[in-house]
Amino acid sequence: MNYKPQPIKTLRSFEFGAKVTKRTKDVDNQTYQFNSVTATEVVEDEFGNPVAIPGGALLDIRANLIAREGGLPYDDFMESLGYARNEATTGWTPVDPVYAVSLLLDDENTVRTPNDSESRITDIDTQAYYFKTNFDLFDGRLTGNIGMRYVKTDIAAEGYSGADFWQNSETLEREFDRVMLRDLRDTSLPECQAPVYSDPNQPLGYEEKYQRVDGQGWDTSSGPDPSGWTQIADQGPCHDPAFAQWAAFQQDPSLPDPGTSISWLNMWRYADVSTTRNNGWDGNIVYDGTTPLATVNANQFSADSTTNRELQSFRATDTHTYTNWLPSLNLNYAISDEMIGRFSISKTMTRPEIDQLRPGFQLTENGYWGSGNPNTGSRVSMYNTQLEPLESNNLDVSFEWYFNETSMLSVAVFHKDMSNFTTVENAVTYLKDVRNIETPVSGSEIILLAEDDGTDDHGLDGCMPLRATADYGWWPSDPTRFSNDLRDLCAQYSVSKVVNGKGAQITGVELGYVQTYDFLPGFLSGLGVSANYTYQDSQYDPDRSTIDPSKTLPSFPVADTPEHSYNATVFWEQDGHQIRLAYRGTSDSLVGTDYNTGLQGRTWNQGSIWNEGRGNLDLSASYKLNDNVTFSLQAINLLDDEFRTYFTSRELQVERVFADNDVGYQFVAFEEGNPLEGDATRSRTYTRYKVGTTYRLGVNVTF
Predict the structure, then answer these.
(1) Confidence band for 6, pLDDT divided at 50, 70 and 90
(2) Is 326 among the domain residues?
(3) Is the whole model's pTM more than 0.85, yes or no?
(4) Which of 128, 163, 596, 623 has the fewest C-beta atoms lying within 10 Å of its C-beta?
(5) Residues 330, 145: Cα–Cα separation, whole Å
(6) Whether pLDDT at 39 is above 70
């Protein structure tokens, strides 16, 4: 017997290719700040004390002036959430935005300042090369492919960093730097140059305001005509004897009473004018010579040119390059004519959203009102051109049984090991002083952490200070008004930073069932069911904050990955007609992105926020009148199930414990843990709303 070996055919095809792309996103998004140049008047009581400071033209636009005619066109507002008609749910009146803008732009005292901080250009250039081999074995029962993909990505981003600094709504320029106030009562420093008043018993407003000692002040001793004034040199750190004696007496009443009082008027020359709205300190001061002089303002004087330094933007640029090797293997094995097993292993990548690659940061500063708390709600958002793409090592194994031509049972097991996922980290920390930035600076460079070094500075020298308006810099009820500790005097900011997370894993099982009951008699033969259930066990890797490395990020379940999710559809299809009733639901899960704030649920405002599990029932139907006309009906969210999220604490300083201090206690972080494991309450509602049921009726005509 002669035997002739047959060739074994395993490789079916070979593929390769290349792709080069260039993507540019150019956002020209200027917003505008509208300010009034109307000088603020100070209202005095019968004794000459300032008691009220009404604003200029902008603050005189009251809500009732721009209310939309007719109010809110509903009489059942919030009723579907179970709230009765009361003062909180009635009387809502939207504004008329067109009329509001006309009031702004038609006012001759309104100045428009552009804010460029939302404008940016991002270029993403990619080169991708791949090859793939398709094969089969065992007489075609085993089929599959193996491949490799190489990707190189180059990113170049340009944009702006921006800051909206604090100034109260009036134009008096009377904000005080609390760190500088510490220096002004430090008698180890040289005395500040004493001001000269024409009448020491009743100083005039311009004499209080302009005799500064920081290099921007003027010697006004020649009188009210600015042409005779001379510049006062920068004296550097110094102390004010009157303020120092008053502060010492306030802390120790056994000391001699200095017989003086301190107010923003006699401290006006020390006000922080570095970021004021109508800043004219680099120019010359002018006076018309006729307007009567006042003791409680300096509105008779003006600068020959002004700049809005309250709102600032400055250029930022950054570049980044990364490469990825992405292998894959896919196998399909036909166990029988009805049963198929599948196996897949791969490495995949997902690039960050292009808007997250912008450079720079945005800062919003709030004022300090004598609370004793250095966290006044000031915030910083930091972007990140250096983001790496999400990489995921994936394993999928599944079994499918097609027990008739239109029915299937399936089970799948999957595992994902992810790294470099994009997240927004949030932490409260101090910042370096950013009031006089002259060169481009990245968000990471401005972070400043307090250190336990045994000094009053605690490593915070050069911080961004708390800034208080008027007398709130030394408010009587403020427990820190005479503190020398920079942890009390520097401002804390809520910092949100786009970063790459360390890693996370998701392991799960999915069960599926689809069947049409075409063996039933008559119209029942159009019935069918499709159902699916997925169980997922997920967790973030333990990780440390990139903002404050002393803080550990929680190892919660992965965001938007509920442990249980399920859906079921009952349908009927026959002769071109169909009806479908579908229900889907999930258990509770960690929020991914809170679109109200842009923060991530995992690190949301010193806590975390969670989605409450919910279900949803939809109905769809169609009726085929003839070959040309079909009517359709959709009812979405039939049960009008509500959406709800809730909050848990991670590091809110609200838990009181014993401490060896003046009050006998201190507040420490309240760490609740994971509510999905019963560690924390689910009762603190953050958002709760309904969207109602949507009905759609349609007709499709072909001709």
Answers:
(1) very low
(2) no
(3) no
(4) 596
(5) 5
(6) no
